[in-house]
Design a protein that fits this description.
two-stranded antiparallel ribbon; mainly beta; 4 strands; 63 residues; Alpha-Beta Plaits; single chain; globular
Amino acid sequence: MAMKITDDCVACGACIDACDINFAISEADPIYVIDPALCTECEESGGDPKCVPNCAVEAIVKA
């Protein structure tokens, strides 16, 4: 499974910095996007997605 970014995204960039395992998040127009082929929900680091707690507007959810 992968995470996704909703339309609530304000494009602050905090999630990109947090996604330092598979670099699955990229800047798009007008919001950021998560590549589902790259997102592993941070299974390699314990299974808690690192991007979610870094999103101030709670725009990252399970896909």
